[in-house]
């Protein structure tokens, strides 16, 4: 080899990164053979190569699947998963004050850990498919008000207790009632009654019809724990791994459950999950072999990671949207014209290009992407129009609006830079946005939903009802409805959609929900962002992975393996 690669990794976003052209030609050589032989790449062609490679990575990425490609351009998954080894997982989203209480699972660290230790009644697979987990089947009555779940028999908790219907009822009821601290209490509020109708059967009666109810039971908060055992930090569950140590904000270590009921899952001997906030530190740890997998790759360096020997970029197209949220009851944002002006004051394509580095697409201020069944493709697209934004502010008596946008890189990598870019865009409309960079630790508990204007991210949910209800409905006020938005027409259409058996009519209702939210809601969602994770090439993955969260739906610990 006649050339060298110099990577100054302590600040990949700002320091010089030099990759000599002949090295890139060597890396590309597997692509260039026979009739497809091309001229050596030149400096001017580097960007073309990056975008072509992104096209390869997207391959099977539509609708929540992912293509994971190596330098040969071939999928990096094995036909038969292998067992053994310790997976070292670097996670950038965590909180030093979090616990294993199922009621409060705010971060990616905790979601990964919970699903290492515990199971749900239902699992979300690739493409949003519902997979029976601790429930083997479920069905409603004729009017969609009563759902009956048959439970898997012979499943043991880590403490040796056999799981039964009483454990399921206890676990669900943790999220119900006036004393619950559950983040999903607004979703379980639709339950009127939860009963163990047999040792292997649970019947849930709802307050009203709900065709999309089952995915509620697939949420991270809805993991199943032993009845009457409030010592949640012991980590007792039915999952593929048993808790050995957990240090909040630092790391966790789990060991393989020898009695796991899933014979085709939980392939590692152990998993060490490490809390590594800084994306550059995670990247360096992966490059130097200190970890095997990392979440949330920096989009601005993703093209470089994609050509690094021994490292694979895992790109998944799904439902995640980056956003800036306005508290709609704050005097500054009460007027819908002001909110509309803010949506017109952001250059979405510039965000895609500079913040996502092309790893995503333009969004339209509502959360239902084309990865959902009832995505509305007919909404007028909000485009950058500072003149119209200025006119709307004049009409609302808010010309020369000044506000503070609170951000950190906790909600998404590059959130601070995105906020600063938004401020540049908005200045053309006479809007002054002062960006306040907040501490990373405690962002979800101290900033998100607490400040009038803040950076946020949503990773989507299993279906339209879950996403819209959890974040924007009247039912979610005081919970995940961080914009405090309460719209009668939206709420009515959402409730009607739940009870509508006719698919065409239900589609129309969800279309209407998206229209109202896009025009009147308090969320500015400029982009859909692809999930970008990375792994050592020795880590094997399934042919298709989930796009509901990053890292294969935050279940990589159970679904991935080391290649032989």
CATH class category label of the largest domain: Alpha Beta
* Approximate strand percentage: 15-25%
Going by helix content, strand content and strand pairing, the class is alpha+beta
Largest sheet: 8 strands, mixed
According to DSSP, the number of beta strands is 24
- From the coordinates shown, what is the CATH architecture of the largest domain? 3-Layer(aba) Sandwich
GO molecular function: peptide transmembrane transporter activity
Pfam families: SBP_bac_5 (PF00496)
Transmembrane segments: 56-77
Domain Solute-binding protein family: 130-466
Give a written overview of the molecule.
The chain has 564 residues and is α+β, with helices and mostly antiparallel strands. It folds into 2 domains: 86-275 and 538-562, D-Maltodextrin-Binding Protein, domain 2; 319-529, Roll (Dipeptide-binding Protein, domain 3). The protein is 26% helix and 21% strand. The strands form 7 sheets. The chain has an 8-stranded mixed sheet with strand order 3-15-22-14-4-13-12-11, with helices on both faces. It has a 4-stranded antiparallel sheet with strand order 7-8-10-9, with helices on one face. The longest helix is centred in the last third of the chain and has 18 residues, at 503-520. Residues 1-75 have low confidence and may be disordered.
Describe this protein with a few key phrases.
4-stranded antiparallel sheet, 564 residues, globular, alpha+beta, disordered N terminus, single chain, 2 domains, transmembrane, Dipeptide-binding Protein, domain 3, D-Maltodextrin-Binding Protein, domain 2
